[in-house]
Protein backbone atom coordinates (compact mmCIF):
# COMPACT_ATOMS: atom_id res chain seq x y z
CA UNK A 1 0.00 0.00 0.00
CA UNK A 2 2.83 2.39 0.86
CA UNK A 3 4.29 1.78 -2.61
CA UNK A 4 1.17 3.18 -4.24
CA UNK A 5 1.40 6.42 -2.31
CA UNK A 6 5.16 6.61 -2.86
CA UNK A 7 4.75 6.06 -6.62
CA UNK A 8 2.07 8.69 -6.97
CA UNK A 9 3.19 11.40 -4.57
CA UNK A 10 6.74 10.56 -3.40
CA UNK A 11 5.19 10.61 0.06
CA UNK A 12 3.88 8.00 2.47
CA UNK A 13 0.97 9.27 4.57
CA UNK A 14 1.49 9.40 8.31
CA UNK A 15 -1.92 7.75 8.76
CA UNK A 16 -0.54 4.64 7.09
CA UNK A 17 2.55 4.74 9.30
CA UNK A 18 0.35 5.05 12.41
CA UNK A 19 -1.69 2.01 11.33
CA UNK A 20 1.55 0.06 10.93
CA UNK A 21 2.76 1.14 14.35
CA UNK A 22 -0.58 0.14 15.89
CA UNK A 23 -0.26 -3.32 14.32
CA UNK A 24 3.34 -3.59 15.54
CA UNK A 25 2.37 -2.57 19.07
CA UNK A 26 -0.46 -5.10 19.08
CA UNK A 27 1.84 -7.91 17.88
CA UNK A 28 4.53 -7.10 20.42
CA UNK A 29 2.04 -6.98 23.30
CA UNK A 30 0.40 -10.19 22.10
CA UNK A 31 3.74 -12.01 21.89
CA UNK A 32 5.54 -10.55 24.91
CA UNK A 33 2.77 -9.17 27.18
CA UNK A 34 3.57 -5.80 28.77
CA UNK A 35 7.31 -6.02 28.08
CA UNK A 36 6.18 -5.92 24.45
CA UNK A 37 5.61 -2.18 24.83
CA UNK A 38 9.30 -1.68 25.65
CA UNK A 39 10.37 -4.00 22.83
CA UNK A 40 8.08 -2.13 20.44
CA UNK A 41 9.71 1.20 21.34
CA UNK A 42 13.23 -0.22 20.94
CA UNK A 43 12.36 -1.84 17.59
CA UNK A 44 10.80 1.41 16.38
CA UNK A 45 13.74 3.62 17.40
CA UNK A 46 16.70 1.52 16.21
CA UNK A 47 16.12 1.96 12.43
CA UNK A 48 15.64 5.71 12.91
CA UNK A 49 18.92 6.01 14.78
CA UNK A 50 20.81 3.91 12.26
CA UNK A 51 19.40 5.64 9.17
CA UNK A 52 19.43 9.21 10.46
CA UNK A 53 22.77 9.99 8.81
CA UNK A 54 21.45 8.88 5.42
CA UNK A 55 18.44 11.13 5.93
CA UNK A 56 20.64 14.16 6.70
CA UNK A 57 22.70 13.43 3.57
CA UNK A 58 19.47 13.22 1.50
CA UNK A 59 20.15 9.53 0.82
CA UNK A 60 16.78 8.44 2.21
CA UNK A 61 13.50 10.20 2.71
CA UNK A 62 11.71 10.38 6.03
CA UNK A 63 8.96 8.09 4.71
CA UNK A 64 11.51 5.39 3.91
CA UNK A 65 12.93 5.59 7.42
CA UNK A 66 9.45 5.47 8.93
CA UNK A 67 8.68 2.38 6.83
CA UNK A 68 11.82 0.65 8.10
CA UNK A 69 10.82 1.60 11.63
CA UNK A 70 7.32 0.15 11.20
CA UNK A 71 8.77 -2.96 9.56
CA UNK A 72 11.06 -3.46 12.53
CA UNK A 73 8.11 -3.43 14.94
CA UNK A 74 6.29 -6.01 12.82
CA UNK A 75 9.00 -8.48 11.78
CA UNK A 76 11.86 -7.65 14.12
CA UNK A 77 15.02 -5.61 13.88
CA UNK A 78 17.24 -8.44 12.64
CA UNK A 79 15.07 -9.16 9.59
CA UNK A 80 14.63 -5.43 8.97
CA UNK A 81 18.42 -5.07 8.89
CA UNK A 82 18.59 -7.81 6.24
CA UNK A 83 15.96 -5.93 4.23
CA UNK A 84 17.93 -2.68 4.60
CA UNK A 85 21.09 -4.27 3.22
CA UNK A 86 19.32 -6.14 0.41
CA UNK A 87 17.28 -3.10 -0.63
CA UNK A 88 20.44 -0.99 -0.91
CA UNK A 89 21.97 -3.65 -3.16
CA UNK A 90 18.82 -3.83 -5.33
CA UNK A 91 18.65 -0.04 -5.62
CA UNK A 92 22.35 0.05 -6.51
CA UNK A 93 21.82 -2.45 -9.33
CA UNK A 94 18.86 -0.38 -10.54
CA UNK A 95 20.91 2.83 -10.52
CA UNK A 96 23.74 1.14 -12.44
CA UNK A 97 21.18 -0.08 -14.96
CA UNK A 98 19.76 3.43 -15.33
CA UNK A 99 23.24 4.92 -15.79
CA UNK A 100 24.00 2.42 -18.54
CA UNK A 101 20.58 2.84 -20.17
CA UNK A 102 20.63 6.63 -20.07
CA UNK A 103 24.37 6.78 -20.87
CA UNK A 104 25.15 9.00 -17.91
CA UNK A 105 24.02 10.12 -14.51
CA UNK A 106 20.76 12.02 -14.22
CA UNK A 107 21.03 13.76 -10.84
CA UNK A 108 17.43 14.97 -11.04
CA UNK A 109 16.03 11.44 -11.16
CA UNK A 110 14.49 10.26 -7.92
CA UNK A 111 13.93 6.63 -7.03
CA UNK A 112 10.93 5.26 -5.22
CA UNK A 113 12.98 3.50 -2.57
CA UNK A 114 9.93 1.78 -1.11
CA UNK A 115 9.88 -0.39 -4.27
CA UNK A 116 13.33 -1.73 -3.42
CA UNK A 117 12.35 -2.23 0.21
CA UNK A 118 9.35 -4.29 -0.86
CA UNK A 119 11.35 -6.26 -3.42
CA UNK A 120 14.02 -7.01 -0.80
CA UNK A 121 11.42 -8.06 1.75
CA UNK A 122 9.78 -10.57 -0.58
CA UNK A 123 13.08 -11.75 -2.08
CA UNK A 124 14.33 -12.57 1.41
CA UNK A 125 11.03 -14.31 2.17
CA UNK A 126 11.51 -16.56 -0.87
CA UNK A 127 15.17 -17.27 -0.05
CA UNK A 128 14.51 -17.99 3.64
CA UNK A 129 11.60 -20.38 3.01
UniProtKB/TrEMBL annotation:
TM stretches of this protein: 36-55, 83-101, 113-128
Q: Which UniProt keywords apply?
A: Membrane, Transmembrane, Transmembrane helix
User: Could you tell me what this protein is called?
Assistant: Type IV leader peptidase family protein
Q: Which Gene3D superfamilies match?
A: 1.20.120.1220
Gene Ontology terms, MF aspect: aspartic-type endopeptidase activity
The Prepilin type IV endopeptidase peptidase domain is annotated at: 4-95
What organism is listed for this UniProt entry? Pseudobutyrivibrio xylanivorans DSM 14809
Q: GO CC annotation: what is one?
A: membrane
Superkingdom as given in the UniProt entry: Bacteria
Amino acid sequence: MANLFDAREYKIPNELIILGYAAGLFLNIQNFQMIGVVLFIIKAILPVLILYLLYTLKGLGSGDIKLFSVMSTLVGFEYTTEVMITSVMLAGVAVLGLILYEKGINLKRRLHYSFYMTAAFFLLQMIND
